[in-house]
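Hello,

Our lab assistant flagged a job as stuck in the queue for most of the afternoon. It eventually completed. Since we weren't sure the result was trustworthy after the delay, we are filing this so someone can double-check. Below is the sequence as submitted and the structure that was eventually returned. Let us know if re-running is recommended.
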Amino acid sequence: PKPIVNTITPQTICSGDSTTAVSLTSNLTYVTCTWSSSSEGVTGATASGGTGSTGNNIPSQKLTTTGAAVGTVTYTITPSYAFCYGPTSSFVVTVNPKPTVNPIDEQTICSGASTIAVSLTSNTPGTTYSWSSFSEGVTGATVSGTGDIPSETLTATGTTAGRVTYTIIPSFYDSTKGLTCSGESYNFVVH
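-- returned structure --
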């Protein structure tokens, strides 16, 4: 009989995270599986495996996108049983990017003046933003929000210069998988 690899559930992860190891099973016992991988926009995938050190497993692998777009790794599996090869099967790991905030110029204003509203942008299309502020010697800053940072009238509370630091968290949401990938925080300062 020809062996057939049992269905493998696709995986979706965030860039820089590890996949779940996959145990390859078949419709028959004593089946040996070999596999190879093909990456598009992803690094970190093991090129091939199977018999030997990995056995009938695809080990956990830390995968990272090479750019701002979604990447994939396709694993192609070939089963064999008593020198009879079954049909190849494949499964895909989708790797979502972790967005970054494009640089924002700091602002310096006089006490009682308004800041310039900040339109947040990212290297990854579809990025959303949440932010919070920390004020030092200043009143008038909104404590937190989502999306762009609005213009705000800021007033120094003392005789020395104050500042507001906005900490921005960019996120990419994959609605098809219900997975949010958050990038590293970015600080923007108004003096």
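-- support follow-up --
The delay was a queue issue, not a problem with the job. The result is valid. The chain has no helices and 17 strands. The chain has a mean pLDDT of 93.
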